[in-house]
């Protein structure tokens, strides 16, 4: 099994990061504006990217301002069964986010592409939390 892992630090409280990652408003600014999101354990969040395929994430854990855990239940076959986690920790007004997408079957070209795109996701999160505007899929030019 392979995992994608990244660390991002933002200059805002953990509550701002948590809200950005659990609400339609935040995720539409960070990831994609084609979404249906509910911040309740057991709910299925849906994400689309320019009409290309549907990704469904089940919300498995929510610890306010500390942790978010999703399980991919429908998407590209390489994503199904992977787990996505955000571990959030605030110190002195700065918040660190450890991102993981775990349980990939193997390292493939798609794995490498997703690794890059998750880094862009975290950069978008930083922009949104610190400046009020992210870089979601529909605004990207690359």
Automatic annotation (TrEMBL):
CDD domains associated with the record: SRPBCC_CalC_Aha1-like
Activator of Hsp90 ATPase homologue 1/2-like C-terminal domain ranges (all copies): 11-128
Pfam families: AHSA1
InterPro entries in UniProt: ASHA1/2-like_C
UniProt protein name: Activator of Hsp90 ATPase homologue 1/2-like C-terminal domain-containing protein
Organism this protein belongs to: Paenibacillus solanacearum
